[in-house]
Design brief:
Layout lengths: L2 H8 L18 H16 L3 E4 L5 E5 L7 E7 L12 H16 L8 E6 L12 H7 L4 H4 L10 H4 L12 E9 L4 H5 L3 E7 L2 E9 L3 E2 L11 H19 L2 E10 L5 E2 L2 E9 L3 H22 L2 E10 L2 E2 L2 H7 L5 E4 L4 H7 L4 E6 L15 H19 L1
Parallel strand pairs: 3-4, 3-5, 5-15, 6-14
Antiparallel strand pairs: 1-2, 2-4, 6-13, 6-15, 7-11, 7-12, 8-10, 9-11
Helix pairs in contact: 1-3, 3-12, 8-9
């Protein structure tokens, strides 16, 4: 089975006929179809599939009870209207790498797992890398089982949950292949690179409350309009990030009562912030919140800021990166990944990136050329072959 045929089978699942983007939210129909696809492909390779209480999947080549296993893979879920490659490229490449190693007669001296972590994007229940956080014990089930999606469905209603199973205890290291979410490899004119680490990042919910009123009869000076507070906060976040060379984005907003001819009573917005260091992230978030509070006082509104998830800076295992990335360019990433969660949990981890000619991600424009994908499979197979000796 070649990479191309695997990709051909996967590509139509969850794709919008309107935008060309993907809607593969966890435990919804498209993502469940992808999970079935993964089980079928694992069975075709005589790989035994294990599922933990949170929905994470791993297909084993060899007996995991032997311990010190090598884990590879990624995730299958997407953001809303996302790209084809973010996550699935790592899963397909891992299966293709198994095929390639078998063609070469590789006999692994330690077990290999191909993993699929669930809800990596946080697009349904709001917490990124949820599956890997739960699997490592970094997040407790009791703390998240009540998380609800936009339709009010709770996490505990769609997955069993409970205490982490010890499958990660058998894992000695993790290598994740991923499409690059930027243009560094384009600028360097190389198809594959290796990651040095992940910028610290997080999500903060801004709840701004004011007073609902009539859009026509209420004088401007008599309003307590939370939309004004939000708008100025979004501008402040943009300014602070640009001035400091960091990242700040308000990409999601909810308004009540959401009427065209009414001053809103409440605006809830989510800030995604990322920075080159933990200190820089703290300064960025504090500066945005300070300006939001000052604007709320001026507008006569009330502000509450809640940190929904914060992940510190992660440096990948330097020795492992050197072992799998000899001759490859080394670059940081501003995007969060399951590999970062496992590294932070004490499992040595590394990442390979495949060039994205558009530089665009979390969008239907996300892309990786077939030749570069094949180079990624070759790099991953070579890395795993060395680690499995």
């Amino acid at each position: 089975m070649t990479f191309e045929s695997l990709w051909h089978d996967l590509a139509p699942i969850g794709r919008s006929a309107t935008s060309g983007g993907y809607f593969r939210q966890p435990w919804a129909s498209a993502e469940l179809e992808l999970r079935a696809w993964f089980r079928e492909e694992a069975a075709a390779r005589d790989l035994a599939v294990e599922e933990d209480p949170f929905g994470n999947l791993v297909a084993w080549w060899g007996d995991p009870s032997a311990g010190d296993a090598v884990l590879t893979g990624s995730h299958l879920d997407s953001v809303l209207d996302g790209g084809a490659y973010d996550g699935p490229l790592g899963v397909v490449s891992a299966l293709a790498a198994v095929d390639l190693m078998r063609e070469r007669g590789v006999q692994p001296q330690r077990p290999l797992g191909v993993g699929v972590f669930v809800e990596e994007e946080g697009s349904r229940f709001g917490l990124a890398c949820l599956g890997s956080r739960l699997a490592t014990g970094g997040t407790r089930w009791d703390d998240v089982r009540g998380l609800a999606d936009r339709d009010g469905v709770r996490l505990g209603d769609v997955v069993t949950g409970g205490a982490p199973t010890p499958w990660l205890d058998q894992v000695g290291l993790f290598v994740e292949l991923h499409v690059e979410q930027g243009r560094a490899l384009v600028d360097l004119e190389v198809p594959v690179g290796v990651a040095s680490g992940i910028w610290p990042h997080g999500r903060w919910r801004y709840d701004v409350t004011g007073r609902a009123d009539h859009a026509g009869t209420t004088r401007m000076e008599d309003r307590a309009d939370p939309m004004l507070t939000y708008a100025m906060t979004a501008l402040a976040a943009n300014k602070e990030a640009r001035m400091s060379g960091q990242r700040a984005t308000f990409g999601r907003i909810e308004v009540a009562p959401n009427g065209t001819n009414a001053v809103p009573s409440r605006v809830t917005a989510w800030l995604d912030a990322r920075a080159e260091s933990d200190a820089a992230l703290g300064e960025l978030v504090a500066a945005v919140e300070k300006q939001a509070a000052e604007q709320a006082a001026s507008d006569g509104t009330r502000l509450e800021v809640t940190a929904e998830s914060v992940t510190g800076a992660v440096g990948f295992d330097a020795g492992l990166a050197a072992a799998i990335g000899e001759g490859l360019p080394v670059l940081p990433t501003q995007a969060g990944h399951d590999a970062g969660i496992l590294q932070a949990a004490g499992i040595p981890s590394a990442m390979l990136f495949v060039r994205n000619p558009t530089g665009v991600s979390h969008s239907p424009e996300e892309l990786a050329e077939t030749a570069d994908c094949l180079a990624g499979v070759e790099a991953l197979a070579g890395a795993l072959e060395g680690l499995l000796r």
